[in-house]
Predict the 3D structure of the following.
Amino acid sequence: MDPITLIYQLSFHTNIETYGFDDKYIVLYDDHRSILNVLFEAKKLGLFSTTPNLIFFDRHDDACNPNICSNDFYKKCGVNKIEDVSNRDFWNFVEFDLSNLDDDWLLAGMELDLINHAVVIGQHENSNMKSMDYIYKSTDGKVHELFDISHLNWSIGDRGCLGDNIIKDPSYKKIRNIFEYNQDQQNSTYQKFSNKVTKPFVLDFDLDCFTTECEDRMFAWPETIFREKYYDNIDVRFFMEQLIKRSSIITICREPKCCGGIGESNKILWYLDNYFFDGCLNTNSIQ
């Protein structure tokens, strides 16, 4: 069986469900650090031609220091590289050694060669990336770039990092290279994606990205707000559809504790399913 087909077997594990969508799978789970389990299994299956970038929607940047060293981890597991780590050892590591606040998995993924560069969309609660000057150097000497950008209605606009045709900040070009979007202002393909994906990426959604706070409680965005920002805006809708189409695999973290509860989390899941995934997540009964 090919790697894409084998991804569905992730649903054999607790806390993970898989759904077929077009030519790829959507993997659904509750705790965000579980994304490393998905990336680990995908890497062992040979899904990626090279270590993938990560484009993720999240209210937080999840870039706290994981206090792990890849060499020590491999030594503990009795191997020399991530591909040789046993499934049991890796899943135990994610469950028991990473933070149960789900805030240190991003750098852990970079340390273990599961994530190359990363862009978080909609983050506005943390400054971990900023405090590192948006660079993380893993034990193997590899430099990983990290970026946090505004929600897409702003980012792809005339003044945003993806849409601005003046490029006021040097980081804009680096961000566009990860998306493979608007890479050449002088070319007629400006305001478009590259014809072919040359830098594989995982597209991830933490549902708390689409929440708001009221009276010290978290709630899902009203459906009208989600539609206004991500669906009724034709340019944003096209951009989202392209991200989904071009990604190697899609992961969704429900994170109910950060969404205001299971009900609020399910509302947001329904938004994504209804407007972008053609109901393949079977969430119609939620509404």
